[in-house]
Write a structure and sequence with these properties.
188 residues; alpha+beta; Ubiquitin-like (UB roll); Helix Hairpins; 4-stranded mixed sheet; 6 helices; elongated
């Protein structure tokens, strides 16, 4: 029999970024409080698990808050590594980034991402430059479809460059948020 479960929203305590959604029963909540590390109930494995028990990417819990009904919990955590099983910082990362991070971690044979990463950050940066020029040229006079194709290539290769440098797109989002708060060069 499955225990009574509460939704557990996991949020980075420093940035406020939502990292994952999991489920907690009373035992997971007790273990989380006792150990200071996040424990959850796995609905697929039908058992308790400690986040990071196989990957080492644990979640140190800094705060636990219940919603107004008491049927959901917000965990403010300090993650020790990527939270998503794909290698992304968040399970809510863009689909494309999750795919690139997964390819970077697994390096499957025949993978274009793996081949680019094996060539090193400088080669990835050159590819971003090439794609940026192609996107600019498409934007200056080619069809809308061509512009979309070139911008897709630019975004993809930008993600690969981030992976080659060991960065997450969240760093770019953080920079844009910082600029939006009034710093010089703010978008919009």
């Amino acid at each position: 029999m499955q225990p009574e479960l509460r939704a557990a929203i996991v949020q980075d305590a420093a940035s406020g970024r939502v990292l994952m959604l999991a489920w907690m029963d009373d035992e997971a909540l007790r273990l989380t409080r006792e150990t200071g590390e996040a424990h959850f109930w796995s609905r697929s494995r039908r058992r308790l698990w400690r986040k990071g028990e196989t990957s080492g990417n644990t979640l140190a819990v800094e705060e636990l808050r219940y919603d107004c009904d008491g049927d959901a919990i917000l965990l403010g955590v300090r993650p020790a590594g990527p939270v998503c099983h794909t290698g992304a910082e968040s399970c809510f990362a863009p689909w494309l980034w999750r795919r690139v991070a997964e390819r970077a971690r697994e390096r499957p044979e025949g993978s274009y991402v793996a081949r680019l990463l094996d060539a090193g950050p400088a080669a990835c940066a050159r590819k971003v430059g090439e794609e940026g020029l192609e996107a600019a040229l498409a934007g200056a006079g080619e069809s809308d479809e061509r512009l979309v194709e070139e911008l897709a290539d630019l975004l993809f290769h930008s993600y690969v460059l981030l992976a080659a440098r060991g960065l997450d797109p969240a760093a770019v989002e953080d920079e844009l948020r910082r600029r939006d708060r009034g710093a010089e060069g703010a978008p919009g």
